[in-house]
Design goal:
CATH superfamily of the largest domain: SPOUT methyltransferase, trefoil knot domain
Structural class: alpha/beta
Largest sheet: 8 strands, parallel
Strand content: 15-25%
Distance between the termini: 39 Å
Number of helices: 8
CATH topology of the largest domain: Alpha/beta knot
CATH architecture of the largest domain: 3-Layer(aba) Sandwich
Strand order of the largest sheet: 5-8-7-6-11-9-12-10
């Protein structure tokens, strides 16, 4: 079960035909959301008119703008994936390691969808979970991008190597090749770590090559979501143009 709030997030859930279990609306804002309420009732679903305090508790924030929906986790999100991965279907993969900031995670998933990734892979012990904040930051991309939470990223990389795939990691440092030298061939995985610590050492060692984004060097690193967008654009440019 996942909770979403705000007009845009609830409307996106309706547009994607997600399984909404319940809708909660501020009793003083019924007129503001008449169209959404009508659509929910047409589906035979429950609409509860509540006090603001109830919405605050249900949404986990005061920024709900008077409307909250509870829905089942979308089928494209695999919360505890423990099966054989289909590297033919998902051949252009983005793996994240240590992305715990929900806003960064949402923005990265949005970029992954826009730049043609087939799947986003997240280690359960080292990345944020899908939350309302992630959904909002992704601008609805969470509903469309196949997302896999896995137990062990190192073993996942071994599986990629076993089918002849290559794994590239993004890492700061002039000793690493520039990202514009990348020549991606499917199956392919790009790994991005946190902006402070980067990838874990064990993951870094598994990568076939480490790549960096050339900058002026006036700051230590880029924001993780910005670095991801630049990297994914480069992959898209090389792979699909």
């Amino acid at each position: 079960m996942v909770t979403v709030y705000g007009r845009n997030s609830v409307e996106e859930a309706l547009e994607q035909a997600l399984n909404i279990r319940a809708l909660y609306v501020d009793r003083n804002k019924k007129q503001k959301y008449t169209k959404i309420i009508s659509k929910i009732r047409q589906q035979g679903l429950r609409v509860d008119f509540c006090d603001t305090s109830v919405l605050d508790k249900t949404a986990g924030t005061r920024k709900h703008r008077g409307i909250v929906a509870e829905l089942e986790m979308p089928g494209n999100i695999h919360e505890e994936f423990d099966e054989e991965f289909d590297f033919e279907k998902y051949a252009n993969i983005l793996a994240l390691d240590g992305i715990t900031d929900v806003m960064n995670l949402g923005a990265i998933i949005r970029s992954a969808l826009l730049f043609g990734c087939d799947a986003v892979v997240l280690p359960m012990d080292a990345c944020a979970r899908i939350t309302p904040a992630v959904i909002r930051a992704s601008a609805g991309a969470v509903y469309k991008m196949p997302i896999f939470y896995i137990k062990n990223l190192n073993r996942f990389i071994d599986d990629i190597h076993a089918v002849g795939g290559r794994v590239y990691g993004l890492a700061a440092g002039k000793q690493n090749a520039s990202i514009d030298t990348l020549v991606p061939e499917k199956p392919f995985c790009f790994v991005i770590g946190s902006e402070r610590k980067g990838m874990r050492k064990s993951v870094r060692k598994k990568c076939d090559e480490l790549l960096n984004i050339p900058t002026t060097g006036k700051l230590d690193s880029l924001n993780a979501s910005v670095a991801a967008a630049i990297s994914l654009w480069e992959v898209y440019r090389k792979m699909y143009k």
